[in-house]
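quick one, 283 residues, struct below
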Amino acid sequence: MIAAVRLLAALAIAATSVEAFATTRPPSSAAICKSPGGSIARSGRGRGTRSPSSLCEQPPSQTSVTIASVAADAMDLTHDAVTLVGKSASTLVSASFFVLLAYQRDAVILGLWLGSIINAVLSKVAKKALNHERPQALQNSEKIKLKPSDGGMPSSHAMSLGFIGVSILGGGVIPAEHRIVAGSLMAIYSAMALRYRVRDHLHTTEQVAVGLTLGIANALAWLRLATGDGPVLSWVRDNFVSPETGLFPYSALAVPIVVGILVVGSFERRIGLWLKENGKKDD
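---
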């Protein structure tokens, strides 16, 4: 389990730098030509040196144009992919967890779901207690239409992604032979989602880092309670799971749907913004 956590953290750090690296454009030949400076030395017998003006007189080769075009397309694709993942992360992760819950329906997955809800509530309580402002640039951003009004420390998205990733990998939900691949995919996806939140000024890097750390720590603590001989797992088995089948009924899935909308869907934030906007209209 510790190895899986280390893999998840390492891949998340590595994947976070993908878009940052891709968005660092190399200087174009036009920019080089416009830059002041001396001559550019060239090695070789009898060649001496060539001035920047002589270099600028030569048109770029077809190969360099092709490479620049491919690099630009890759940067645009990476940017769009990060945006798509970031905007859909909350909905997609919640829906995926619900599908897993509905498919497995045993005490382990139910206990992990309960832990994810507690983790989400703790993130909201921590935001209220710390009251740490989000980046100032968020208020001037035209990309984010529905601007959050709550604090930014810690990032609730980072806490949820950290908790769900570690708990799913460490809780025995995924077969051992598939955990490395599944952990790698979850780490890359989480890194892209969190990169989006920093890039578009929804959170600072520190807010995301603290949220991810808290989420992983909560998952490690919860796994001790909700797996093996843990008291949470025993309580779930005794109260919510059929002793004959070891499963909970499909009708009980209505509870996670309602709770997920209220807690994970930031229901209270949307209601608060709606009341605020209607208050301005009345004034």
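Residues 85 and 189 are 7 Å apart (CA to CA).
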